[in-house]
Structure formats: C-alpha cells, structure tokens
Input
Amino acid sequence: MILPVTIYGDPVLRKVAKPIDKDYPKLEEFIANMWDTMYRSDGVGIAAPQVGRSVRVFVIDATTLAEEEPELADFKKVFINAQILERSGDEESMNEGCLSVPNIREDVSRKTHIRIKYMDENFVEHEEEYGGFAARVIQHEYDHLEGKLFVDHLSILRKRLIKSKLTAISKGKVKVDYRIKVPGK
Ligand code: NI
Output
C-alpha cells in the first residue's frame, strides 16, 4: 500500500526515532508499504518518519544505479535499529534531494566511508562497511532517524536562499506527483 509522504514542517521529521523489537505490530506489512511508497515516488531510499512513524527503520534500493557503481547491483536492504559506528575518509560534496523536501536539490558534504551495525527484516544483526553512493544514501536515511534533513547541513547562506521554498513546502504549496501529507492537515 502506498502511504502519503510527510513533508518539511511535519514534526515527525524532527523527532529522534525509537528502536523497535521483533514484536513490532505488522512489521512485514509496514516494510512492504515503505517499499511501495518509495518506488511510487522514485526514491532510492525512504525512512519510517517519512511515512509518519517515528521508528528506526529505513529501506534502500540502489540497484538501479549499478551501471555507474557495479557494487550497488545487489544493494537492496532493510535497516532496522541501525547505528553508525564510525564515519571516516574525506568530506565529499554531492547533490542530494529528499522525498520530504520536494523539488529542492543541494550539495551536501558528508564523510565518504561508514561502518554500520543494523538488523535486517529477519532481525539478523549485520556489521558492514560502505563507501561511495551507498555510504551517502545510508547517511541521508540515518539522518531521518535523528530528526535531521539534508537541508540542515547547508551553509547559512544556502539556507537563506531556499527559506521561502521550504516555507512553501510546509504549507503544501508544492507540485509533486506522489501523495504527500501536508503538516497539520
Ligand atoms: Ni530524505
């Protein structure tokens, strides 16, 4: 089932999300809904707060980008209760966007490598290292669990330049071809 996407200005996007356990109600269905919603809106990843739930779950499917980065060929994963253990390497700037901040794209600087511990959809624990695009998307989705958005990383000047666009988004004055949930409505 496709769920409406929460957008900039929604308080759920600013909360620190809570971990879940195996008994979380209808987890399988919830994850299936996250996939449906992500594919419908052409996203590469989506985090639970973006569908209105403040829990530590995000999903990523970067397989469509395998042409540019062959190691992404099988990168379709569910991350539950993820913890980034280490960020390393250089700071690298790359253009980012977000389903919750429609029609805005900005360069964001992030570390190039991460080490992460998480549970998959079967609650099997994994500890892995990522670089490149995978590290980029994971850090973006992980931010959502911490109540952060990519625009928070911008310089004061860039923030000032997009302020009116963000205000418009928070009022639902934005054109998107997927379902959104306007804050307070
Ligand atoms: Ni996002």
